[in-house]
Amino acid sequence: MAPANTLPAWAELQSHRDSVGKSFVLKEAFASDPARFERFARTFTAPGVADVLFDFSKNFLTDETLDLLVKLAEQAGVERKRDAMFRGDKINFTEKRAVYHTALRNVSGWEMKVEGKDVMGGPNGVNTVLDHMKEFSGQVRSGEWKGFTGKKLTNIINVGIGGSDLSGPVMVTEALKHYGADDLTLHFVSNIDGTHMAEALKASDPETTLFLIASKTFTTAETITNANTAKTWFLKKTDGKGDIAKHFVALSTNESEVTKFGIDAKNMFGFESWVGGRYSVWSAIGLSVAIYVGFDNFYKFLSGAHAMDKHFRETPLKDNIPVLGGLLSVWYSDFFQAQTHLVAPFDQYLHRFPAYLQQLSMESNGKSITSDGSSAKYTTGPILFGEPCTNAQHSFFQLVHQGTKLIPTDFILAAKSHNPISDNLHQKMLASNYFAQAEALMVGKTDEEVRAEGTPEDLVPHKRFLGNRPTTSILVGDVIGPAELGALIAYYEHLTFTEGAIWDINSFDQWGVELGKVLAKKILKELDEAGNGDGHDTSTGGLISAFKKYAKI
Ligand SMILES: *[C@@H]1O[C@H](CO)[C@@H](O)[C@H](O)[C@H]1NC(C)=O
Ligand SMILES: *[C@@H]1O[C@H](CO)[C@@H](O)[C@H](O)[C@H]1NC(C)=O
Ligand SMILES: *[C@@H]1O[C@H](CO)[C@@H](O)[C@H](O)[C@H]1NC(C)=O
């Protein structure tokens, strides 16, 4: 593949940006074109999923921009790469693996094969594991599954890290809290900081606690350390009478390690090597979600994502919603030097959504080497950040409105609230802010307008808003239920895919998280040995030696 900046459309976009882009004023584009909204808004429709309106019209776009961006996608082979993913090709090329999380949500009869082998059936097949999850989650919810003293298990502790925690279960159970069983308490322990496990155990009764240990290889250092601490606690609290097999299950594929730990191999939920951590909530890693919201809702969650997969797979580029999202991101990153991408949901249930997207986007596209091993001569993955609004409006939105940086922003709102309290007053206030932020970022406030408010002349520049800040508003046509959440996540997954396809990088590996892990392992040993950080640079050595002195380890 050719580097993105050598594609003919790249040069065309560059001159287009120089001629049109520099003087493009959103406010004027709307004034001169009453059809602008209709032309650049797209509605995602699918059976079983509420409509989702994506308003791209408040972006630096003209018909010509759109044509050129689509041309760039064509020249970069976005469709070819997308089809390769859905075919099960080994597009995770640094590790020669398929990237096949879309098979986990194949609810409509697509053929899904890796190396010529159907992945839906068989012992670790998608449908086999789903059936097992359905059975087990049903038993836990109904109380048919009992602890060693015959009590229902009502306290669930999911032990995982990265994709098996943050990017999946934590965010999704929070987002679907409205659907959660009232008699279940969930804890997610990921941090190796002992505080995380200690606080979860403090609130737990071993007779009613179920541990889900999530680690594909069952060797992840943080997770296994936390799991062993949990096991020790469990055995101690039950005077050794507790039955591990009734209280611990594994979301893993390493049968020998799992059984060595004491978990019954029957209570192991597997997934294949083509499930990347940041795409694993759709797999057995989603078991905590299935238990909490019920399997039917979990299935709807998969279906919503599948509906977005279908849209991504079948819709021409120009109307392909995640492709448009990805193209805009490339447009701002590479032609406007935007360094960030802000996602601000007007939705309290989505409070972990930006954190989830951080892993999805930055672990995928925080790369600088292209497919032929050379350094990219252009900017790749943006710094993604966000917080739920309206809280964010009272913190960092000052910088978004009046700072020196261009921050392309996505706003998300559900038309209906799960909690329409006070006669929908809260929802109407929330919605007003959602509309107002995007409008304010676009129109700004001129000196004349500031003066007209009777502002003293010396304050006029301080109260000026330049405006012309691009936003994409996403409006879900109902509440955000399991299917809509699935579709929203899949939108960002495919947006990220599109960016990576254009940048010609491998969006699926994550070597960048390895180096620190390796060094930590080495330093852990040194903490128990004599010596004062010898062999390190003086800063690292000095810190290690000070730590030993203060902590008296
Ligand atoms: C998924 O794909 C397989 C073929 O690989 C197909 O037979 C099956 O019906 C599909 N859907 C479901 C829900 O399993
Ligand atoms: C299981 O764990 C063992 C011991 O760490 C390791 O050697 C082996 O590769 C793992 N197997 C799988 C399938 O992850
Ligand atoms: C790609 O390969 C890497 C390295 O083995 C692996 O860690 C990652 O999970 C794979 N990604 C996907 C999406 O399967």
Give an overview of the whole structure.
The longest helix has 22 residues. This protein starts with 7 loop residues before the first helix and ends with a helix. Helix 12 crosses helix 13. The protein is of the alpha/beta class. One 2-acetamido-2-deoxy-beta-D-glucopyranose binds next to loops.
Features:
about 550 residues; alpha/beta; Phosphoglucose isomerase, C-terminal domain; six-stranded mixed β-sheet; 13 strands; globular; binds 2-acetamido-2-deoxy-beta-D-glucopyranose
Unreliable sequence segments: none
Instruction: Tell me the domain tally.
Output: 3
Helix content: 40-55%
Spatial ordering of strands, largest sheet:
1-2-13-12-10-11
SSE inventory with pairings:
Blueprint lengths: L7 H12 L6 H7 L3 H5 E6 L2 E7 L7 H13 L2 H9 L26 E2 L2 E2 L7 H17 L12 E5 L6 H10 L9 E5 L4 H9 L6 E6 L6 H17 L6 H4 E4 L3 H7 L6 E2 L17 H7 L1 H20 L6 H15 L4 E6 L7 H13 L17 E3 L11 H6 L6 E6 L10 H19 L3 H6 L18 E6 L5 H22 L10 H15 L9 H14 L2
Parallel strand pairs: 5-6, 5-7, 7-8, 8-9, 10-11, 10-12, 12-13
Antiparallel strand pairs: 1-2, 2-13, 3-4
Helix pairs in contact: 1-4, 6-12, 7-15, 12-13, 13-19, 14-19, 15-19
This protein binds 2-acetamido-2-deoxy-beta-D-glucopyranose (NAG) (3 copies).
The site of one 2-acetamido-2-deoxy-beta-D-glucopyranose (NAG) has 10 residues, from loops.
Enzyme class: isomerase
Protein name: Glucose-6-phosphate isomerase
GO cellular component, one term: cytosol
